[in-house]
Amino acid sequence: MQLIQYTLETQKELLAEYSHQPLKGQVALVTGANSGIGEGCVRHLAAAGAAVVVNYVADPEAAQVIVDQINQSGGQATMAFADVSNESQVKTMFDQIRNDHGTLDILVANAGLQRDAFIGDMTLAQWDLVMNVNLKGQFLCAKEAVLEYRRRGIRSTSRALGKIVCMSSVHQLIPWAKHTNYAASKGGLMLFMQSLAQEVSPEKIRVNAIAPGAIATPINHQAWETPEAEASLLKLIPYDRVGIPDDIGRAAVWLSSDASDYVVGSTIFIDGGMCTFESFSTGG
Ligand code: BGC
Question: For 157-184, what is each residue's pLDDT tens digit?
């Protein structure tokens, strides 16, 4: 299979899905939004009426194309540089968002990466990088979002004071050999998300997570790009197709909108049934 290629045309088509504009008047930040799942989320949030901020740390050209296409389709988008694991860069990004859009209503904390290795070969640098981006980055961005929601106070555009959607993974549940750093970061994220939801929901800040399975993006290209790899991957997916970023973008819109107003501290698994552990269908 191939990577989904979004265009100005697909961006215009998406608008038809969101004719009721559930996020109108709200501002959404998606971290790591210049490719993969982050791009899917930011395009759907924009089509759903949010003014969006496309965060990137590398490849500003890709971020610019996304911003231009959203603006040309009648949406509203800006871009903001920050390494989510760098506190001062995250603070600067939030200042820029206040400057460009006045405030923030929705954080999709999506930025994440893999540095896979057998335990004996895994370097401290590989361990630290994965923890810094996948876990520390969630803390730094969520903290700034909570502070901004409190500073700004409730507004008429949503029943919640603010929303946070953490991008986790099926590997917050499924152990993953040769990926101990990644699985540990997502397992940690699960309890970070739940604990934060418990802490801030009395203030009407809703914190939830999405746990994607195998979604075809650059992060896992070797798992689906040849027919042999895809066939082997599909053995883990009862629904018998690899996911695409739109599958996640739709859930990000729902979790950010008042349609999910009573959803707090939940993880939505979007994995074609990966977490049903398909290998047990013929064993056990
Ligand atoms: C990983 C992908 C992997 C998927 C299912 C995701 O969290 O980033 O590389 O294909 O989980 O194993």
Answer: 999 999 999 999 999 999 999 999 999 9
Residue 97 has pLDDT above 90, yes or no: yes
Number of structural domains, the chain? 1
Tell me the residue range of the domain where 58 lies: 8-282
Nearest CA-CA partner of 214 in 164, 269, 265: 269
Pocket test for ligand 1, best of 170, 190, 235 (most atoms within 8 A of CB): 170
Binding site membership of 114 for ligand 1 (Cβ less than 6 Å): yes
* CATH number of 28's domain: 3.40.50.720
Q: Is the pLDDT of residue 141 over 90?
A: yes
Q: Is the CB of 229 under 6 A from ligand 1?
A: no
18 is an active site residue: no
Q: What distance in Å separates the CA atoms of residue 224 and residue 13, rounded to the nearest whole number? A: 26
- For residue 123, what are the contacts with CB-CB under 8 A and spacing of at least 6? 117
Average pLDDT over all residues of the chain: 97
Q: Does residue 2 lie within any of the structural domains? A: no
